[in-house]
Specification:
The protein is α/β, with parallel strands linked by helices. Helices cover 41% and strands 13% of the residues. It has a five-stranded parallel β-sheet with strand order 7-6-5-8-9, with helices on one face. A four-stranded parallel β-sheet has the order 2-1-3-4, sandwiched between helices. Strand 1, helix 2 and strand 2 form a beta-alpha-beta unit. The protein is globular. The two termini are 13 Å apart. The model has no long low-confidence stretch (mean pLDDT 96). The chain binds phosphoric acid mono(formamide)ester (CP) and norvaline. The site of phosphoric acid mono(formamide)ester has 9 residues, from helix 2.
Amino acid sequence: MNHFLDIHKTDPTDLRSMIDHAKQMKTARNGRPRGTPDDELPLTGHMVALIFEKPSTRTRVSFDVGVRQMGGQTMVLSGNDMQLGHGETIADTARVMSRYVDLIMIRTFDETVLTEMAEYATVPVINGLTDRTHPCQIMADVMTFEEHRGPIAGKKVVWTGDGNNVCASFLHAAGQFGFDLTFTGPEVLDPEQEFVDLARSKGVDIRIERDPFKAVDGADLVVADTWVSMHDAQSARERRHNLLRPYQVNDDLMAHAKSDALFMHCLPAHREEEATSSVMDGPSSVIFDEAENRLHAQKAIMRWCLGV
Ligand code: CP
Ligand code: NVA
């Protein structure tokens, strides 16, 4: 069963073929993300359940559109409206859903919900973000980098701010795609050591640098994300902002990276907090390409999961 649970749990050859397939499908659409159906409709007759226990714009819309472009049908479910949110076990939910649908995408809090869903489902399960990781996002980000700058292997990526779920998937991708990653942020928000060690064990250069200006020296890509994630307590907001303010990505910081460095943000962004509008809307920014590539990358992920 091809579940897509995390980047480090997926074979690097499969990851590479998904990225290549996504690029092919994007090219075949002649630059149009919308409108014309794909020549092939490999998901004809397939029903895909999209379960959300947290808010979403990009994941929800890009999966929904992606399935429809490939001839399948979707049902978007809010975790809260399901019995899952009212005491039914994940295992029972997984077994029941598997009798109705061909593929399950779930966005949830605790990653054990995802892994338990995958354990008991008899259809493939895709991770649409948990508190710990966000692999679909990073597949789109790798694709986006390579569209603009060629192979990502050997490049230097700098993650700024909170060592959160998206950062974790970037660390997983560093190991699997062979790029170096420097984290710059306050020590209390460092990424989990497990993610750092795993990437290092794959032979890539993973550094922690407290000074954001030193960190971006030689960077091919600078990445920011929100300072307060959906799973973070709102009561921690002010403290996080105070800790993270020195790590804002602004024109001054970007000027210390390589002259052709790209800027990425998975969105949604809080403009003038983790990144300024001058950077987000500036010449280095590829944030809307990232958002579009969620669509193409996830189509390839779904086809890999279903073997179609
Ligand atoms: N980047 C991302 O996953 O966005 P959504 O929360 O809007 O899905
Ligand atoms: N780190 C953010 C990513 C949102 C797509 C969060 O988990 O809220």
